[in-house]
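hey m, so remember when u said the tokens were messed up on ur end? i reran from scratch. heres the input so u can diff it against urs
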Amino acid sequence: MTDLYTEALSTFAALFEEAKRSAEIEPNAMTVATADTSGQPSARTVLLKAFDARGFVFYTHLDSHKGRELRSNPRAALLFLWRSLREAGIQVRIEGHVEQVDDAEADAYFASRPRMSQIGAWASLQSKTLASREEFDARVATTEASFADREVPRPEGWSGLRVVPQRIEFWYGAQFRLHERWCYEVDHDGQWSKRLLFP
């Protein structure tokens, strides 16, 4: 890690802690933007589950819409919006390439989830067409019965995806749109730079 990357991660960590102490309902909520091979973008909100020098991790089924897009085009953008922080809110924008976490990391996180969340991961054919809510409720009941009196293992194809940052921007909101924006970027040689952007 370079000093600037360390600085960017430390800044994120401090802001994240500030958001967790604030009025934000879910400070770990983040928008994940992906694109298919034709360039068609899509976005959705997921929850950040871990971050460190290796990147920012969320979990999904790899056959979900985002999972399929990220397999074919492993690049993503993340957006945190903490509206209640400071003068006029803070945004953190992260862009980078995406890699799958290893099985041990995915297993450990899956084991930490509430049991019904584990059941749901087995019962849901994520992003596929569902005929009715009753069908899903029946799948949940059947799955719950099949794992009665034993631990629920992680389903095959359900895993974590790590966004490895290549660009991190901190956007500090201000009145009259006089915002402050700091951008950290890494070049092809792995060297990080920092610059101030016009709002």
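this time it looks ok to me. The mean pLDDT is 95. if urs says something different then somethings off w ur setup not the seq
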